[in-house]
UniProtKB/TrEMBL annotation:
Heme binds at residue 504. Keywords: Heme, Iron, Membrane, Metal-binding, Monooxygenase, Oxidoreductase, Transmembrane, Transmembrane helix. Pathway: Secondary metabolite biosynthesis. It comes from Mycena alexandri. The chain crosses the membrane at residues 37-57, 63-85. Belongs to the cytochrome P450 family. The keyword Protein biosynthesis does not apply. This is Cytochrome P450. It comes from the Eukaryota. InterPro entries: Cyt_P450, Cyt_P450_E_grp-IV, Cyt_P450_sf, Cytochrome_P450_monoxygenase. Its cofactor is heme. Pfam families: p450.
Length: 562
C-alpha cells in the first residue's frame, strides 16, 4: 500500500532497512516520551510493524510470513537499539557500576526479586560494586549514610515510579504511602500526624493493653494443653486485631476466631503480585485489564476497603485513627473524599500490622537464639515489674529498647527501603557526589546499610543489643567485645522507619506496641524453641516482598509464677 501510494517499487533490502529504522525510531520515542501505560507501549510495539509489513508483502508469498518477518526485524532492531543505548557511554547512568543484565533490563532484577531474596541480592551487589550500584537500566541503589538526607530528607526526592505500579486500582486517589506529589503528600499527611500525636497514642494504650491481655489468656490455655504454639501466627493475629481497634474501633477478631477471615493468607498471597507490579509498573495495566490476575491482591484490597467502609457506616464512640482521617473535628479546609479515606484505611492494615508482627517475631527469635540477652531482658522486666504495664516507663528501659533496636537493625521490617525519584521538571537531584538524573530512580538499601561495618562495629551481622547501651554498661556486660575492639555505632545509619517527610508515621505506635508485647511475654512466660526446630529456617524462610513474608516460629511456653 505504501509503495503503491508512493508509486516507488521498493527493493526488498530497502523495505527491510525502513523496518530497522522504524525500530530505532520507536526506541527514541520510548526514550523521549517514556510511555508507562500498557496501551501506549502496545501501540508502539505493534502498529509500526503492521503498517510496514505492506512494504515487505510484495516480496513475500504469504501474509503471515510477511507479518512475522517484519515484526521480527522491527523488534530485533528495537531491542538492539535499547540494549546498545543502555550499555553505551551516552546513557545518563553509564558511569555507575552494576551487573550487565541489570543495566540491560529490569526483568533480570525482578526475576530475582520474585524469589523473595532481593535484600540479599542488593547486599551482594553492594559488596561487589561498592556504595552506588546500577540495579536497573534507570535505577540506582545507595549504601552510604551520606545519601540518606539528600535522598529522603525535607529537600530530598519524592516517591518513585515503583509506587505507580503498586497501587493500580488507586492511581487517581492513592494511599498516603504511594503519593508521589510532595505537596499533596504534605497536605494528606497532616491528618495522619494528628492521628499519631502523643495524646492520640495515649488513647490507644488501653486498646493495645486489652488485646495483649486477650493474647496472654489464650496462650496460657494453650501452654497448658499444647506442646508448642506458632508465635508467628499469634503475633500476626494480635497486631491485626490491634490495628483494627486503633484504626477502625474494632471489626477484627483474628485471635478469637483464629483468623476466620483468612486475612493473613490473603495478605501473604497478595505480596508477590504487588512486588512484581512495583518493579515493572506497566504490568499493573495488565492486572487492571485481566480480572483473573493477582487474585490474592484483589481479595486483600477488597478486605481492607470493607473494613474502612464498615467503620464509616458504623461510626465510633472514641477517637480512632479513622476519626482523624475523615476529619470529624473539621480541622481541614476541604473534607477528604470517600475514595481517599477508603484508600488510606486499607494502607494502615498493611503498613501497621505486618511490619510490627514481623519485628516482634524477629525479637523473640533473636532472644531465644541468645539466652544471655534473654536473661538480661527478663531481669530488667522483672525489676521494673510494678511499672511494666506503663508504656512511659517501658520507653526508659534501656535493655528492652536495645533489644528492639538491634532486631530492627539486623532485620528491618522493610528490608529494601522505599524508592525515590527526582521531582518531575527538576532535572535531577544531587546525592552527595552523585547525580541522579530525572527519569531515573534510586533507593537507600536499608538492609545493606544496617549491616555495614563502617556504621556498626564490631560484628555488624551479630545480635548484640549491648551496642545500644551506654559505654560503661557495655564494658561491664561484654568486656571481651567492647573493651577490646574499636566501637562504631552510627545511629544516623539506622533507618528502619525511613527518614524525612515521608517517614513512618506509625513509628511511635509501633515502638509502644512492641515494648508492651515484649514486656508482657517475657514477664508471663518462659519461652524456648520447640524441640527439633531448625533455628536457621527462620532466616531462610524470610522473604522480602517489600512486606516481609515469614515462616513458622514454634515456641514452647511455660507460665511463670506471677
Ligand atoms: C516495626 C514497625 C514498622 C516499621 C519498621 C515501619 C516502617 C515503615 C517504612 C520503612 C515506611 C516507608 C517510609 C518511606 O517511604 O520512606 C513506612 C511508612 C508508613 N508507615 Fe510504617 N512501619 C512500622 C509500623 C507502622 C505502624 C504501626 C503504622 C500505623 C498505622 C504505620 C504506618 C505507616 C504509614 C501510614 C506510612 C506511610 C507514611 C507516608 O508515606 O507519609 N507503620 N513505615
Amino acid at each position: 500500500m505504501f509503495s503503491s501510494l508512493l508509486s516507488i517499487p521498493l527493493e526488498f533490502r530497502h523495505a527491510l532497512l525502513i523496518v530497522v529504522g522504524a525500530g530505532v525510531t520507536s526506541h527514541c520515542t520510548f526514550n523521549r516520551l517514556e510511555p508507562r501505560a500498557l496501551l501506549h507501549i502496545l501501540i508502539l510495539l505493534f502498529l509500526p510493524p503492521i503498517l510496514l509489513s505492506t512494504l515487505v508483502l510484495p516480496h513475500m508469498s504469504g501474509f503471515f510470513s510477511t507479518a512475522a518477518l517484519t515484526f521480527g526485524v522491527y523488534l530485533s532492531s528495537l531491542v538492539t537499539s535499547i540494549v546498545v543505548y543502555r550499555l553505551s557511554p551516552r546513557h545518563p547512568l553509564a558511569k555507575y557500576p552494576g551487573p550487565l543484565l541489570c543495566k540491560v533490563s529490569k526483568l533480570w532484577f525482578t526475576g530475582i526479586a520474585m524469589k523473595g531474596k532481593q535484600h540479599l541480592y542488593y547486599s551482594e551487589l553492594h559488596q561487589r560494586f561498592g556504595d552506588v550500584v546500577r540495579i536497573g537500566p534507570n535505577e540506582l541503589s545507595f549504601r552510604n549514610v551520606n545519601a540518606i538526607v539528600p535522598m529522603m530528607g525535607s529537600k530530598g526526592m519524592p516517591k518513585g515510579p515503583w509506587w505507580d505500579g503498586r497501587v493500580p486500582e488507586n492511581r487517581e486517589v492513592r494511599p498516603l504511602l504511594a503519593l508521589r506529589d510532595p505537596e499533596e503528600h504534605a497536605r494528606r499527611r497532616r491528618a495522619w500526624n494528628r492521628a499519631f500525636s502523643t495524646p492520640a497514642l495515649k488513647d490507644y494504650e488501653v486498646l493495645i493493653s486489652a488485646r495483649i491481655s486477650q493474647l496472654v489468656d489464650i496462650l496460657t490455655t494453650k501452654a497448658a494443653t499444647q506442646n508448642s504454639v506458632d508465635l508467628s501466627k499469634w503475633l500476626g493475629w494480635l497486631t491485626y486485631d490491634i490495628m483494627n481497634d486503633v484504626m477502625f474501633s474494632g471489626g477484627g477478631d483474628s485471635m478469637k476466631f483464629e483468623d476466620r477471615d483468612d486475612t493473613s493468607r490473603l495478605l501473604v498471597n497478595a505480596q508477590p503480585m504487588a512486588l512484581l507490579m512495583s518493579h515493572l509498573p506497566w504490568i499493573s495495566d495488565l492486572y487492571l485489564w485481566l480480572p483473573g490476575m493477582g487474585q490474592g491482591l484483589r481479595a486483600f484490597r477488597k478486605y481492607a476497603v470493607q473494613r474502612a467502609s464498615e467503620r464509616k457506616t458504623r461510626g465510633s464512640h472514641h477517637k480512632d485513627v479513622f476519626y482523624h482521617l475523615i476529619d470529624e473535628a473539621g480541622l481541614e479546609p476541604t473534607p477528604p473524599s470517600s475514595a481517599q479515606i477508603l484508600s488510606d484505611g486499607g494502607l494502615a492494615i498493611i503498613a501497621g500490622a505486618e511490619t510490627t508482627s514481623t519485628t516482634l517475631c524477629h525479637i523473640i527469635w533473636f532472644l531465644l537464639c541468645n539466652p544471655t540477652a534473654y536473661r538480661r531482658l527478663q531481669a530488667e522486666v522483672d525489676d521494673q515489674k510494678r511499672n511494666t504495664w506503663v508504656p512511659a516507663s517501658q520507653a526508659r528501659m534501656p535493655y528492652l529498647n536495645a533489644v528492639i533496636n538491634e532486631a530492627l537493625r539486623l532485620f528491618p521490617a522493610v528490608l529494601s527501603g522505599s524508592q525515590r525519584a527526582p521531582l518531575i521538571g527538576s532535572g535531577g537531584q544531587t546525592i552527595g557526589s552523585h547525580f541522579v538524573p530525572e527519569g531515573t530512580s534510586a533507593v537507600v538499601h536499608t538492609f545493606s546499610l544496617h549491616h555495614d561495618p563502617r556504621y556498626f562495629s564490631p560484628f555488624p551481622d551479630t545480635f548484640i543489643p549491648e551496642r545500644w547501651l551506654a559505654a560503661e554498661e557495655q564494658i561491664a556486660l561484654e568486656p571481651a567485645i567492647f573493651a577490646e575492639n574499636e566501637i562504631v555505632h552510627n545511629t544516623a545509619a539506622f533507618i528502619p522507619f525511613s527518614v524525612g517527610p515521608s517517614n513512618c508515621v506509625g513509628r511511635n505506635l509501633a515502638y509502644q506496641e512492641m515494648r508492651m508485647v515484649v514486656c508482657t511475654l517475657i514477664s508471663k512466660f518462659e519461652m524456648r524453641f520447640e524441640e527439633g526446630f531448625d533455628v536457621n529456617s527462620w532466616e531462610e524462610e524470610m522473604l522480602d516482598y517489600f512486606v516481609v513474608q515469614r515462616g513458622r516460629l514454634p515456641v514452647v511456653l511455660t507460665a511463670r509464677p506471677s
